[in-house]
Specification:
The structure holds two protein chains of two kinds. By secondary structure, chain A is of the alpha+beta class. Chain A has three domains: 141 residues, Gyrase A, domain 2, CATH 3.30.1360; 83 residues, Alpha-Beta Plaits; 74 residues, Elongation Factor Tu (Ef-tu), domain 3 (Beta Barrel). Chain A has nine helices and 19 strands. Chain A has a six-stranded mixed beta sheet, sandwiched between helices. A six-stranded antiparallel beta barrel of chain A has the order 14-17-16-15-18-19. A five-stranded antiparallel beta sheet of chain A has the order 5-6-7-4-8, with helices on one face. Chain A is globular and about 65 Å long. Chain A starts with 10 loop residues before the first helix and ends in a 12-residue tail after the last strand. Chain B has one domain: RNA polymerase II/Efflux pump adaptor protein, barrel-sandwich hybrid domain (OB fold (Dihydrolipoamide Acetyltransferase, E2P)). Helices cover 19% and strands 34% of the residues of chain B. Chain B is built from four helices and nine strands. In chain B, the strands form two sheets. In chain B, strands 1-2-3-9-8-5 form a six-stranded antiparallel beta sheet. A three-stranded antiparallel beta sheet of chain B has the order 4-6-7, with no helix packed on it. In chain B, a hairpin with a 3-residue loop joins β6 and β7. Chain B is globular and about 35 Å long. The chains are: A alpha+beta, B alpha+beta. At the A-B interface, α2 of A face β4 of B.
């Protein structure tokens, strides 16, 4: 209360579009627009929607040591990709706990790291402490706006202005395009399980680009989408959310991020701890579950096996594409088998649940 | 946002319509707007006896879940079965198709403790609605 919320360049536009603004990680962000979360969710699965994700932190790493330093900070292997590509990874502390999950753009002689809004300060501080003298960090959060265009028709929305430049961009690749005299970065990635793009535009062109994008996408009848549908979309495809599945007490091995932990790539922060954890065996592992009935599992509900409380729901709720309540949570490895019966304690009511395959939703248009 | 004059209201964001010795109640326009898309509504069985402020059911919305509290002491006569298949009726028509419970009124004096449309609207304004 009383804290000054930060506003993205789109704030006033969201208000005019009927955005229901809520505080989120220190920012005033739209949780939904007029037609509601379910409508926005289905819009993205069915055609395409546009998200303002300018609240995320954007940090440049520059200088001769930038690539090597960022590779030392993250669990994934930046040397595996070159200029023109990006990757997802975890940024760990020395104990292997997750400080943040990040997207890293290899820009050739510099790196752009995109971090969660809630962790932007923590990442900045952590990286500043470890940074060698030949690396410079620049906070570009205010200099760039960030838009996510997601859905099976996303590509068609960018075809008219940028055509091949965007069409030829593969999954986790990016291109620079010129628009109104400025350079815009467009990458093919996202947080919904659909094909789509993230667009980085200089702040002074942020609003004109948004408005023009809606014109380019008029055939897809683009609509703005808020944080509510962003959450339900990512949960259906089991993408982890920092603060839910991920935190400093959880390792990427436990949280289902093994695929972005490259223990053989050489030294990186947290490697020793993660190696030890792998050797000793995991205490717990992230599973997905579905519940019977209509009551919904929610973040924080205890997970039971028999009479024993064995874990906590990290994310839970209604999955619109599957029309049922589903969730994720950490359980002991011996209870992670598909089909294992569990119960969710929804404020006293025990919901019958069972472990299911992840991701929950598999019909997305994402082209890996 | 609507606050029909003919209805009475509670601080828990429910509305009550008096029909002879029966009451019909549901949640207000403000309540459904705050909840957002509703996906499931749990209601009591007909015959259930409720004391004022008893939790008689719950509403699961996409973002959150909330309990429902009896606005007055009453005995449930019927519930809106249509909400089972189409809970969005509460979002679309909170005072009409989205009604929840019809009940026989217990103590008519409790009606005097309910808020007028004007008083409820003032309460909502204070909440930023």
């Amino acid at each position: 209360m009383g804290e000054q919320l930060r506003k993205t360049p789109y704030h006033d536009l969201h208000v005019r579009n009927g955005g229901k603004m809520v505080p989120f990680a220190g920012w005033s962000m739209p949780v939904q627009f007029r037609n509601g979360i379910l409508h926005e969710h289905r819009k993205v699965r069915g055609s395409a929607g546009v998200f303002d994700v300018s609240h995320m932190g954007r940090i440049y790493f520059r200088g001769p040591g930038a690539v090597a330093f960022v590779n030392y900070l993250i669990t994934n292997n930046l040397e595996r990709i070159g200029r023109g590509r990006l990757l997802y990874g975890a940024l760990c502390n020395h104990d292997g706990g997750i400080i943040d999950d990040v997207t890293v753009y290899h820009l050739g002689d510099e790196i752009l790291m995109v971090v969660n809004a809630a962790n932007a300060d923590a990442v900045w501080k952590w990286a500043s402490e470890l940074k060698p003298g030949d690396v410079e960090m620049v906070d570009a959060t205010s200099d760039l706006a960030q838009i996510a265009l997601q859905g099976p028709q996303a590509e068609s929305c960018l075809a008219a202005p940028f055509d091949a430049a965007v069409k030829d961009v593969g999954y986790y690749g990016y291109a620079h395009v010129s628009w109104e005299g400025a350079q815009i970065l467009i990458s093919r990635n996202g947080y919904t399980g659909e094909d789509g793009f993230e667009i980085y535009v200089p702040t002074q062109l942020a609003v004109p680009l948004w408005e023009t994008l809606f014109r380019w996408g008029s055939a897809a009848q683009l609509e703005p989408v808020g944080l509510g549908a962003r959450d339900s979309l990512r949960m259906e495809v089991n993408y982890a959310l920092y603060g839910n599945e991920l935190n400093t007490d959880v390792s990427p091995l436990e949280a289902g991020l093994r695929w972005v932990v490259k223990l053989k790539k050489g030294d990186f922060v947290g490697r020793e701890a993660l190696l030890a954890q792998k050797k000793a065996g995991l205490r717990r592992t992230l599973v997905g579950f579905e519940v019977a009935g209509k009551r919904l599992p929610r973040h924080g509900h205890p997970i039971r096996s028999g009479a024993e409380e064995i874990g906590v729901v990290t994310s839970g709720g209604y999955c619109p594409s599957l029309d049922r309540g589903m969730g994720m949570g950490f359980v002991p490895p011996e209870l992670a088998e598909i089909g294992t019966p569990l119960a969710i304690d929804a404020r006293g009511a025990l919901l019958e649940a069972k472990v299911v395959e992840r991701p929950f939703y598999r019909k997305g248009s994402v082209k890996r | 946002m609507e606050f029909p004059e003919r209805l009475r209201y509670t601080k828990e964001h429910e509305w009550v319509r008096v029909e002879g010795d029966e009451v019909v109640f549901g949640i207000t326009d403000f309540a459904q707007d705050q909840l957002g898309d509703i996906v499931y509504i749990e209601l009591p069985e007909p015959g259930a006896s409720l004391q004022r402020m008893d939790a008689f059911g719950s509403v699961e919305a996409v973002k959150t879940v909330t309990d429902l509290y009896a606005p007055v002491s009453c005995e449930v006569v019927a519930v809106n079965e249509a909400l089972t298949d189409d809970p969005a009726r509460v979002n679309n028509s909170p005072y009409g198709d989205g009604w929840m419970v019809r009940a026989k009124l217990g103590d008519a004096a409790q009606l005097d403790e309910l808020l007028s449309a004007e008083a409820y609207q003032k309460l909502v304004a204070e909440l930023g609605g």
